[in-house]
Amino acid sequence: MKAKQKEKRVIAVTGLNAIDSPGPGVAVIRALHDSEEWDLRIIGLSYEALEPGIYMNDIVHTTYQIPYPSAGTSALLQRLTEIHAEENIDVIIPNFDAELFNFIKIGDKLKEMGIHTFLPTLEQFEARDKLNLFAFGKKHGFLVPKDKTIFSIEEIPSASAEFGYPLVVKGKYYEATVAYTLEQAQKAFHKLQAKWGLPIIVQEFVSGTEVNVAALGDGEQCISAIPMRKLYITDKGKAWAGITLEDPTLIDLAKKFCKETGWRGGMELEIMRTLDGKPYIMEVNPRFPAWIYLTVGAGQNQPASLVKLALGESVSPFTDYHVGKMFIRYSWDLIVDVEKFQQVSAFGKI
Amino acid sequence: MKLRRNIATSESGFVFNPTNGDSFSTNPVGTEILFLLKEGMSFREIKDALVNRYDAEPSVVEKDIDDFALALKGFNLLEYES
Known about the structure:
The structure holds two protein chains of two kinds. Chain A has helices spanning 25-35, 73-87, 97-105, 107-113, 122-127, 133-140, 156-163, 182-196, 248-261, 293-297, 302-310, 338-347, and strands spanning 7-13, 38-46, 62-65, 91-93, 147-150, 167-170, 176-179, 200-204, 209-218, 222-233, 239-244, 264-273, 279-285, 326-328. Chain A is α+β, with helices and mostly antiparallel strands.
């Protein structure tokens, strides 16, 4: 009997920066290859010529550079149109917070071209932004630490009067510092302002154990949720090792989150579990986390499920996963001829 | 008090709490106590069993088991019987 031929699928993925603060792209690509559902052609979409995923030719077939998010939606659409003419892309999976706005904006146009995405709506994307997170939590009945958005360093004392010390000073896009004194808070303000601009978010400090949940919503319900605790954390606060947990409270939280918000796409809930067991949502990342490959190890391949959903297939919610499954990240030196680097730098394609 | 239902133990003395991801290692006697707890024995019954099995002063065995129970409690591995 002849084996059924696998369907050819061309999937484009961003976030190939598998560095010390890694993007999720390479992990997403590994997950897609592991699914063995399709005859895959993986297209990498990169911003910089030294993103390691560009040179991982055993899992990424070709890579194109795309314009930075700051170039806007027209430039992105134009570049994707050019790439699509050559590659006939079926699905794009964007993996950076900063690029999602543009991809959501051009989602309908991509669909007209035959390119599928599976992303949250603009309203969902903005509602869970850290600037709006407290109101978001209040609206949907989630525990979220109190916060205050500030535009000037003079506003720190009034925030500290409300929350007390320690408090958390957070950048608009990334990074957070726990400040124990006014001086530390001021220093963090300057540093984060210089790096990410204004406003700065000052947040109530919640002590407990940090846990994370990678989840996938289909627009109505939660298809998959895998809770993980970081076992080894880099100086950038990134997980270098982690383990899946048995925690029905976190699964229920992810389910409630998907249902209440109608979440469509991948996401990561960053949660602080207080000593008395209360799960505070610290952040909602509107895309898969860099540790997403652990969901494959745990038995719920979230990236492959997202592709199916993007292609209009229905996916039944997963019910089981392996508890105690670990990931341990490592670094690996790729040896690359300068011609390849030159190819990416000069022509934006390899 | 008894060992939480979902705590995983191995013959090598490795203990894993799947609720929070904590893991520990114990010595062979600790491993034995954990297995007896898993079999449903109370700390009182375990004390009697170990006093009979080991050539040691009952008071020393009892104290060691009390210390071990305190450590298990501190690491959130025990729960109260309902």
